[in-house]
Amino acid sequence: MLAALLLSLSAAGAAEAPLAADATKAAGAPAPLEFNNRTIVVFRTPFLSHTSSERAEAAQRRIEVLADRTSGSTVTTRAIPQGIAVEIDGASVFFVTPADVDDLGGATLQSTADDAVRALSLALREAQEQASVRHLLKAVVLSALATLIYAGVLYGIVIGNRRLSQRLSFALRAKVEKLKVAGVIAVHPRHFLAFARRLVVVSAWLLGLFATYVWLTYVLRLFPYTRPWGEQLRGHLVG
Asked: Nearest-CA neighbor of 128 among 71, 60, 64, 66?
């Protein structure tokens, strides 16, 4: 009986050890604070017995309560002994501590807080814009116009592909005689025609994909909530 009890206790301890390790790892895992689909800051360490994820969730709730979607809000910072406090209209939202700084990226405590202020200010303005019916109607109208232009571009690419293929066929048929050597066709023109058509089709697909990329980037950037995705696509295109 004593041996069985010892075995059960050792098994329970072995089972609890991975759980404790996972809990410790989760508590120290970075947690991004997001608002209106934008990343404001990344909490990299627990603070005042709160894990990184708990800090992010609490800050997100505070932003939802303090955000003024009608007249706008002012984001400021205030120095505290533990680091820098980020505030909305004078009310504390979250704290940036030295442990939250990305040292490998060359950031400092002040630069991290300044980046958080800029990101939060932008997210609050976009939240205010998203609550405006006039801005949303304008975005819908512009996206509809952009879609019509995009459809016209795709139609032009399709028509251009067909006409160019036909012209290539006529041009190659007219030059068949020049491909003859001693009255025999050395290379059949259909081989050139097949290659040329494939080249035209590939070019048309590339133009269509580029037009789709540009259209999607523009439309996403019209709406506040999807604007970060559009900015990422535009950054990839420029890069």
From this structure: 71
Residue type for position 201: V
The pLDDT assigned to 163 comes to: 85
Q: Which pLDDT score, from 0 to 100, does residue 23 have?
A: 47
Nearest alpha carbon to residue 226 among 109, 143, 112, 102:
143
Q: Are 53 and 88 in contact (CB under 8 A)?
A: no
74, two tokens: 């002012």
pTM of the model: 0.71
DSSP state letters, 148-204: HHHHHHHHHHHHHHHHHHHHHHHHHHHTTGGGEETTEESS-HHHHHHHHHHHHHHHH
Q: What is the 3-state secondary structure (H, E, C) of 79-108?
A: EECCEEEEEECCEEEEEECHHHCCHHHCCC
Residue of 79, 75, 74, 76 whose CA lies nearest to 109: 79
Residues 201 and 161 sit within 8 Å (Cβ to Cβ): yes
CA distances from 7 to 17, 119, 230 (A): 15, 55, 58
- Tokens 């050597």, located at residue: 181
